[in-house]
Amino acid sequence: MRADGARNRRHIIDTARALIAANGTGVTLRAVARRAGVGTATVTRHFPTREALIDAASARQFEICTEVIDESLADPDPWHGLTAMVDRVFDPRARRHDMPVAEMLDAPAGQRAITGVCELTRRAQEAGRLRADFEPHDLLLLMRAGESLAETSPQAARRLAAYLLQSFAARTAPLPPGGQPIHPLTGVAHFPPEQGQTAVA
């Protein structure tokens, strides 16, 4: 693919991500073309169907999501890695083009992100920094909550993240039971059995 074609493709994908973040996955190719400032024929040349474009937008979102998780896992301080991820989740500037968590987790690549979240949680707990009763799906629920902060000021979002991080620390009081580890919206189990979680049929 020529360089200008690759740029157009990425621009269309990023535009689709922004529209999906704002309006859900019902966006049309025509709406994406209009927002991207290109013709519908340009969009369909890269993505013949709406489903193909949504799949590409999901794949791009997972690239970004897994990059954030991988950076957090690479941090030699597990607690710092976890807090960096929470800060990213609650930064409205970073979330501006993020797709809804439900669409992300329902995509085939979702399991990789979930596995990374489980590993990040485990490491922080083994380091004695994260409370022992914190569960991986708590972090996914926080990601879902972070979607509502798109119009919040960065300062207010950082303040909320700081409050939450204080409550995650190992020194705080026990939490009430969280129930089965489920998808934040659908109720379907999404965590690998090897993480000590019980799958739901």
UniProtKB/TrEMBL annotation:
Swiss-Prot/TrEMBL keywords: DNA-binding, Transcription, Transcription regulation
Name of this chain's protein: AcrR family transcriptional regulator
The HTH tetR-type domain, residue ranges: 6-65
Species this chain originates from: Catenuloplanes niger
DNA-binding residues: 28-47
InterPro entries referenced in this protein's UniProt entry, alphabetically: Homeodomain-like_sf (IPR009057), HTH-type_TetR-like_transc_reg (IPR050109), HTH_TetR (IPR001647), Tet_transcr_reg_TetR-rel_C_sf (IPR036271)
Molecular function per GO: DNA-binding transcription factor activity; transcription cis-regulatory region binding
Alphabetized Pfam families for the sequence: TetR_N
